[in-house]
Amino acid sequence: MRGNKKLFLSAVSSEFASHRNLLAADLKRPDLDVAVQEDFVVTGGTTLDKLDNYIRHCDAVIHLIGKAAGAVPEGPAVAPLLAKYPDLGARLPPLAEYLREPQPGFSYTQWEAYLAIYHRRPLFVYTPTDLELDALHVPRDARFGFSPSEAQSQQEHYRRISALAHDRGQFLNEERLSSAVLRDLVEILPRLESTVNVRPTQLRHTAERLIGRDEDLSRLDAAWNDPHKNVVIVRAFGGMGKTSLVATWMAELALKNWRGAERVFDWSFYSQGTREQGAASADTFMAEALRAFGDLDPTLGSPWDRGARLASLVSEPRCLLVLDGLEPLQHPPGPMEGQLKDAGLSALLKGLAARNAGLCVVTTREKVDDIKQHYGRTADDLELSYLTDLAGAALLFDAGARRAGAMAIAPDDKELQAASREGLRRQPHRQNHLDRGDLERTKPTTPRHDLDHGPPGHAIVAQHGPRRTKATHTTSPRRITAAARKHGHRYIDQPPHQGHAHGPPQQRGAAMFHGVVSHGTDRLWGCRAGGRPAA
After folding, report:
1. Angle formed by the axes of helices 242-255 and 214-225, to 10°?
2. Helix ranges (DSSP H) in 382-524
3. Paired sense of beta strands 231-235 and 197-198, if any
4. Mean pLDDT, residues 421-433 taken together
5. Can you give the three-state secondary structure of 83-148, one letter per residue?
6. Whether pLDDT at 521 is above 80
């Protein structure tokens, strides 16, 4: 019978001790062993030899590459390892020139990654978003001190790791790292049994994958971890991915065993068809929620009384309450813009903004005027912005635009970035409508090197003002359109903007992206693709 699964967390503790500690806590399971370098105290052998023996039998190694390299083992400790694995350079070619020296100069932490690759152990590599920047934006341990020589060593180490095709992604902080690792290791980790009371979700229009929203996810993480934050309003006009953002964050919390929540309850007002109703009502939600939280008579009292009673029931345990698509229950632009039409919902949100042991997350197109006095205090207004050019380019690359003629291009290719912003650049006054319109996916074919030849492949979308067109591997916005016309891809007119919400103000600063999406797997990159327009 196989014993516990084994993981190794590889990081320089003087730089990322807190990141590693949070990750170790989130990974904790009865049938999983998690080890770090400090666990291998030298008793009758070298630290490097003990690390090698453990890593060789690991189910996975998580490796963080920051600006600190850490301690370097002495030559006498390295020599036995090189003798033990004479084919190390042949198996890992980027290391070959260094291994010709008796002392290659690799740190213990760098060796941990190389040994994982050599032993063909699953290696998951993560870097802080500021790895290649001069300024430090990602939090570090208090003991961290910047060393130019160590930073250079880590840059070279990162290039070697990348050459060996083991670069996984970046992280902004401890929570984002933990979320990424738990997601990537979901097939490896033993199942975690949760005792949290979680109602089956009602959220729709969710995404398999979210790109370019790490900062927004970080704000939700921070709100949940802040005992003084009671309500978060996630606000944007239709199609920008409010629901998918919140659903993704909830899925991450679930992987962390809900991070201290005692109860999880969500409700989508779209599920009742309230978006199309002339007189939307919260009665069904109020009755269902009161019943779920143990109220003896959900019909007792006025709407305000029921809302106040629900606020009291929700606020006492550490509960995550999610209300999706609130705008049908808000007044349209005018003297009462943003105010709630339903007295019960108003009482609920006012009560939770004043006192809440957990967090209430609301998605809507409008600010919730009823709790405006709490904004910046116990309530936050999180307005989603367009994706950046870089995120838009990553979208196009992931969707299949990976070659310019015969030449391979990178996810940050300048022409891909130009393609991603073309819609807004050409018709900025239409930016509030660049997210609408349904598209169908073309049948998959063998990937092509150039869009100008052969039948259509997997569909991606390029925006030119108010219209969308299907395309595949391409380089420039104009070429996307021309090639799409050539191959008979049809344009689909965008419907007029539904609802009463105004779009966000004209964006300033860097050009923003919105409207290039990939279909078929219902993936989301800042806006939702396919089907009924998302909230």
Report:
1. 60
2. 389-399, 414-426, 477-486
3. unpaired
4. 42
5. HHCCCHHHHCHHHHHHHCCCCCCCCHHHHHHHHHHHCCCCEEEEEECCCCCCCCCCCCCCCCCCCH
6. no
Output the six-digit token pair for 359: 């967090």
Strands (E), 262-378: 263-268, 319-324, 359-364
CA separation for the pair 158, 240 (Å, rounded): 34
**Residue among 381, 252, 375 nearest 320 (CA):** 252
- Residue carrying the six token digits 């109703």: 277
For residue range 34-48, what is the model confidence (pLDDT) as tens digits? Answer: 999 888 865 555 889
What is the band of 439 on the pLDDT scale with cuts at 50, 70, 90? very low
d(CA 325, CA 320): 16
Residue with tokens 């003896």: 296
Q: Which residues, in sequence order, are bridge partners of residue 375?
A: 379
Q: What is the pLDDT of residue 169?
A: 86
Residue 275 has, within 13 A of its CA and on its CB side, a CA count of: 15
Residue 480 has pLDDT above 70, yes or no: no
pLDDT in tens, 137-194: 999 999 999 999 999 999 999 999 999 987 778 999 999 999 999 999 999 999 888 8
In the block, residue with structure tokens 């978060």: 232
What are the C-alpha distances in Å from 71 to residues 12, 74, 94, 241? 9, 9, 21, 44
pLDDT (average), residues 355-382: 96
User: What tokens were used for 329?
Assistant: 């229950």
Q: Please give the Cα distance from 198 to 451 (Å, whole number).
A: 47
pLDDT score at 203: 87
- Let me know: does 112 contact 51? Beta carbons within 8 Å: yes
For each of the domains in the chain, give its residue range(s) and CATH number, in order of start: 5-184 (3.40.50), 197-383 (3.40.50.300), 387-513 (no CATH)
Strands 492-493 and 467-471: what pairing? antiparallel
At residue 35, φ and ψ (nearest 5 deg) are -120, 155
Query: How far apart (Å, rounded) are the C-alpha atoms in residues 309 and 366?
Result: 25
Token representation of residue 88: 């190390």
Which tokens is 91 given?
Answer: 């198996």
